[in-house]
Write a sequence for this structure.
């Protein structure tokens, strides 16, 4: 179970001088905590550059989002969400020769249903600009792959052309998850709510209005991936998920056509794949090969 402290614990020098023995680990305990602490500062900077009320005005003239959910519901399944990913904290640079627009166009040509765009600069070498650039170059629905901790980022995603926004259950309280999901829907988008444990899945299923859930196969503490995460979580909650018609996505660690069939059998309608496609020179060919058993 990964738990995070939403902000960096801070003790002023004056308080420290009082000499109480405060058992406070001031270093981040894992990568997710480190990323979320950095986001706090980043969003503060974004707000200074463009205040929320200005951003909200821009939303009014932004184009209507595409149907992300509909794209994943179309046969044959699972549909591919291809991720535009230059680097990650665990792998470093994944693709040195990185042209986000060209990559997105290859995904579209090869039959991906949606595209995931990493917007985090510090840890994934992504960019908010990639989202707008890709929006102009392809017609597929786009997922904003961000560490959302404020509604501000949701409005920004909508302005930059996203149709879906990632919400990570591990970093949000139930209240924030529910509230952010509602904002995303109110803006005409859909939330991909990401879980990686049974406890998180149960939390999310306890919430009304969730219609798209991603199971992350990556262990967030040691970065290993294991597709049995998708199998085991789905097996334990399948009747409820099916009854509610929730669209399920398997995320991370999908490398081969066999992997694709394995998560299909587990019951997902979509797959989110980055690294294994980004590592290959010809992305179009790589997608066609990955999806060759999907009929
Ligand atoms: O590169 P992979 O193993 O195919 O994984 C893609 C995607 O699932 C992964 O990038 C991801 C899943 N959840 C996230 C949350 C934040 C950043 C990245 C991610």
């Amino acid at each position: 179970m990964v738990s995070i402290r939403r902000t960096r614990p801070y003790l002023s020098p004056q308080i420290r001088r009082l000499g109480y023995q405060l058992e406070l680990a001031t270093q981040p305990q894992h990568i997710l905590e480190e990323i979320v602490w950095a986001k706090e500062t980043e969003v503060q900077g974004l707000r200074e550059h463009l205040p929320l009320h200005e951003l909200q005005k821009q939303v009014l003239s932004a184009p209507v989002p595409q149907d992300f959910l509909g794209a994943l519901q179309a046969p044959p399944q699972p549909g591919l969400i291809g991720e535009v990913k230059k680097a990650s904290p665990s792998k470093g640079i994944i693709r040195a020769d990185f042209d986000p627009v060209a990559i997105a166009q290859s995904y579209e040509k090869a039959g991906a249903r949606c595209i995931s765009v990493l917007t985090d600069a510090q840890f994934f070498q992504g960019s908010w600009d990639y989202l707008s650039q890709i929006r102009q170059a392809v017609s597929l629905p786009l997922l904003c792959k961000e560490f959302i901790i404020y509604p501000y980022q949701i409005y920004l995603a909508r302005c930059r052309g996203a149709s879906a926004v990632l919400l990570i259950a591990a970093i949000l309280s139930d209240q924030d998850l529910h509230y952010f999901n509602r904002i995303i829907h109110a803006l005409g988008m859909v939330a991909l709510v990401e879980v990686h444990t049974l406890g998180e899945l149960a939390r999310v299923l306890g919430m009304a209005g969730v219609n798209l859930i991603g199971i992350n196969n990556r262990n967030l503490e040691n970065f290993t991936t294991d597709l049995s995460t998708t199998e085991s979580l789905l097996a334990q909650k399948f009747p409820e998920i099916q009854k509610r018609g929730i669209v399920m996505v398997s995320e991370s660690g999908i490398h081969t056509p066999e992997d694709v069939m394995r998560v299909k059998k587990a019951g997902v309608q979509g797959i989110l794949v980055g690294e294994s496609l980004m590592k290959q020179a010809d992305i179009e060919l790589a997608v066609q090969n990955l999806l060759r058993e999907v009929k």
Observations:
- DSSP finds 13 helices and ten strands in the chain.
